[in-house]
Amino acid sequence: MSRKSTEGSTSEARARLLGTAVRIFYAEGIHSVGVDRIIEEAQVTRATLYRHFSGKEDLVLAYLEQADQGIRAQLSAAQDGAHTPGDKVRAVGRAIAEGIRSEGFRGCAFLNAVAEYPDPAHPIHQAVLAHRQWFLDTVTELLANVGDAPAEAAGRHFVMLRDGAMAAGCLSDPGLITETFLESVEGILQARSTAHAAD
């Protein structure tokens, strides 16, 4: 077998392992899923898993990294068609709402993970905090372009609204939840625009 085909099968096996872990961890939780289940469903050997990941924790970190990259790409794409600062914030809100309304939605992967890893020093907990800091920084920067007032409180408000919508969206009617969430995002924008106009 050539080196190229070996590398191809290696990356294919890793992708299959990670894809399986992503699907099961999100649907069923992390602690409830053992590596044997992932090995079986990914149709790889135990040696293959440990060739790509040092253990379950490493696999969970890769799962969260993939989720982080997916959300970054989703929010970036959502803003592409938006022309005004307010429309960029609305586009981010709509992207979040679409996720909540999607089939198989089970809440925020990061909030779910941190509930299973409450120790602030744990690498998985740290990965969640890093993602959330990026998200807070991103929405705060977007909101800073709407009006002149400092945007830190508005950014925290947006994140809290998003967290609540994510939690409620898998417990009750996601249509009503996302409608309320988007109305609240509009309220943040109006408050910033009103403050700007008053100045």
Automatic annotation (TrEMBL):
Keywords: DNA-binding, Transcription, Transcription regulation. Transmembrane segments: none annotated. PROSITE patterns: HTH_TETR_2. SUPFAM superfamilies: Homeodomain-like, Tetracyclin repressor-like, C-terminal domain. Residues 34-53 bind DNA. InterPro entries: Homeodomain-like_sf, HTH_TetR, Tet_transcr_reg_TetR-rel_C_sf. Residues 11-71 form the HTH tetR-type domain. Pfam families: TetR_N. This is TetR/AcrR family transcriptional regulator. It comes from Streptomyces tubbatahanensis.
